[in-house]
Amino acid sequence: MNINIGQLLDRRYRIVKVLGSGAFGQTYLAADTHRPGYPQCVVRQLRPTGEQPKNLHPIELIVKQKAESIEKLGKNNQIPQLLAFFEEEEEFYVVEEYIPGSGLDSELFPGQPLGEEKTVALLEEILEILIFVHSNEITHGNIKPENLIRHQVTGKLVLIDFKWLGADGEELLNGDRSIPEVGVGITQTYLPQEKTEEERGYAQDIHAVGAIGIQALVGLSIDDLSKLPLENNGTAGTIIWRHRVEVRAGLADVIDKMVSPDPLQRYKSAKEVMADLRRVKIRSQVPPPPPPVPQSSAQTTAGQTNGQTTGQTTGQLPAEWQQDGKKKAEPIANEASQPESGGKQQNWIGVPIARVGAAVALLLALILGWTFYSTYARKNHFQELLGSGQQRSGSGDNQGAIQEYNKAIELNPNNHEAYHKRGNAQFDLRNYKEAIEDYTAAIKLKPEYVNAYYNRGLANDEAGNYGAAVEDYSKVIEIEPTDRDAYYKRAVAYHNLGNYSAAIADYTEAIQRNIDDLATAYISRGLSHSADGNKQAAIADYTQAITLEPNNADAYYSRGRARFFLADYQGAMEDYTEAIQLTPENGAIYANRCGAYLNLGEYEKASADCTRAIELNPLDTAAYDNRCIAYMNIAEYAKAIADCTQAIQVNPKNTKAYVNRGLARAAAGDSPGAIEDYTEAIRLRPDDAVAFTNRGKVYADIGDYGEALVDYTQAIRLKPNYDLAHYHRGMIRVKLGDREGAIEDFRQGGKLCLDQGKTGCYNDAQYQIEQLQQYPSN
Fold first, then answer.
1. H helices of 395-431, where?
2. Residues of the chain whose pLDDT is less than 50?
3. φ and ψ at 260, to 5 degrees?
4. Which of 590, 552, 585 is nearest to 573 (CA)?
5. pLDDT at 278
6. pLDDT of residue 524
7. Edge to edge, what strands does the sheet with 40-46 contain?
8. C-alpha distances in angstroms, 291 versus 252, 361, 364, 365?
9. What is the pairing mode between strands 8-9 and 13-22?
10. Which residues contact 599 (CB under 8 A, 6 or more apart)?
11. Closest among 666, 695, 671, 672 to 683, alpha carbons compared
């Protein structure tokens, strides 16, 4: 089955775009129309490449069995969750969680080796996923950099695109066609040289990870990786790569074993690889040796004088290992200071005592030395962990940074800096709850820690805790009253709370303090003015932003929206045009300019803009709505109905789309269809006066004046100043013979028209009154 963009599969999944293709079908990005917000998902097609198999049941069993296995893996946040499996028109489809982010291939650049430390960290991260997958007796079978997605929220790698069909399934799905052997292609670059999947087993995944390791260490493109020479060692070709980069032998040995051409020599499990990698890391991180142990250079003998021993140490503790830099082991007294008891007995007792004293001194020196060294080593290791965490975070490995900070906090749980840094790493991973906890711990240890308050404010902002964010920024301002960034961020939080006057005041403070990004500050204040109902003040701020940055598309776009609200459609169109020239791939701007063209009566231009908006974002309901109106105004009713229908399919609760489709159906002569649409719009939004008025007009057109009168009356109840409803009810009352009621409706409608400057409808109402007064009914 050929699938088109916009097509609905399983009456649920709206196809948005093609993500890729393979031997057994294409992979699509889709929107799940049965879930709130229409979240994106991935739909994978599994279809025969040859003649259609006569019996699909065996294939269905294989796919279902695989689906059940992968569904268990979905409990891990580094494996996409399997959402559904269905059959449609004798083809199978699986639906998976969509993982936002970029592939690992975007982190591996040809000619730029990743380095040993980062490569080992990368291999460990992939192997951790494999250990989980293999522990569930599943082989991925399709590992390559494109199938390892760096999640844009968590920062973790996610393993996607499992091989759904084994050899049996492929043979069934291929029909009579032969299954291609392993050969050229991206996937084959990462596969071992065994011919069948049974021969490869888990080793095919390990081989792929090893190949990625070579690619990262050497800095190779996929094409260059596939062209690495092989040597013949009697069994199969061993990849020759070590000469291209300096690498420790231990790490190179591990990778060679991962990609060994001999299945007997290759690793049997990801756990084995992980263990060897960690041993390689441990060897490269051996701590410095302890300080030299003091040794006695001479025996203490009887008859020494001056109260000194001759015992000297061959080494001395460095000053930083000595307590306070000055305390050392005390010298022991010699036998001359001992009480005399005469003759040989003195020598017989004195010598052992002297030796015992020396031993005690030596023991004390060892204890003190080790204590000082241990303290120094712990402090030094703590700083190393902080530095390593900072380095990992700077390179984008925030998960690795957190592990380093965890170790640092274990060594010193009272260090505010460690909590703050870990909070920053959690923030970068969008783990806002954990970040807030770490910033709070840092603040408890250092109550005036202004950076922790500021960053906790940022985390509260991202988590939607705007009230807490205001409190944090207020504390920053209390500690540092001149912090312009804190004023700006507090303004943003106030805006999100709907406190626009407070937001405007804080934006003004930030502007007066000459915040770095002044144009953005003016735009932000303009948005608060606009939300507060002061469109003119908003336009003034947007204009100031344009003066500061003439190429600021956001400023033109925002000013265009404010002008549109004030019915300055020409000015709005001009601003949207400027914004489009600066950002030509922004679909929302095209959709808004489409609306401006509609109000200017330039329907062809409106249609073209909405079409471009839909090309850029196939789920833009506003663009479908506006193009529907444009088509209606040029009497292209079928196209109008199709567009409004598309808007409804994207969002079944789109009241405006039902109303517009009702207008198009009515114009096309489909009165029952129009009434049906207006009725659905009223069901979704019972306070919609426009829907009641439009349905009343259709009832009037088909001669059902009673129902029309009911609808117009309800519209007036909902919106007493609705001039059009008064006018149309007046016309119905004329039909029903209610002359006085009709005159009253025309008078009220005409007055409302005049109040709004609508002279045309005012004149129409006056004409109807004159007709009724000139030709009264009998």
1. 398-411, 416-428
2. 53-54, 167-187, 233-235, 285-351, 353, 376, 778
3. -60, 135
4. 590
5. 85
6. 96
7. 8-9, 13-22, 25-32, 40-46, 91-97, 82-88
8. 33, 17, 15, 11
9. antiparallel
10. 564, 567, 569
11. 695
pTM beyond 0.90: the answer is: no
- The string of DSSP codes covering 130-187 is HHHHHHTT-------GGGEEEETTT--EEE-------HHHHHHHHTTSPPPPS-SSHH
Taking each helix axis as running N to C, give the angle between helix 603-616 and helix 587-599, from 0 to 180 degrees, rounded to the nearest 10: 160
Which tokens is 624 given?
A: 């479908």
Alpha-carbon span 373 to 385, nearest angstrom? 18
Give the separation between CA 535 and CA 554, rounded to whole angstroms.
Answer: 16
Q: Of all helices (H) and strands (E), which one includes residue 25?
A: strand 25-32
Contact 300, 355 (CB under 8 A): yes
Q: Please give the Cα distance from 61 to 310 (Å, whole number).
A: 89
Q: Which residue has the tokens 């919106």?
A: 719
Residue type, 208: A
Least Cα distance to 190 among 126, 246, 252, 233 occurs for 126
Q: What backbone torsions phi and psi does residue 25 show, to the nearest 5 degrees?
A: 130, -175
Contacts of 149 (CB under 8 A, 6+ apart): 99, 101, 102, 103, 104, 157, 158, 160
Using left for φ > 0, alpha for ψ between -120 and 50, and beta otherwise, residue 53 falls in beta
* pLDDT tens-digit map of 200-250: 578 889 999 999 999 999 999 888 888 888 766 444 567 889 888 888 888
Closest CA to 277 of 121, 473, 150, 408: 121
> What domains appear along the chain, each with residue ranges and CATH number?
8-97 (3.30.200.20), 101-284 (1.10.510.10)
Cα-Cα end-to-end distance for the chain: 69
Q: How many CB atoms lie within 10 A of CB 54?
A: 6
Per-residue confidence (pLDDT) for residue 188, from 0 to 100 = 60
532 token code pair: 């507060």
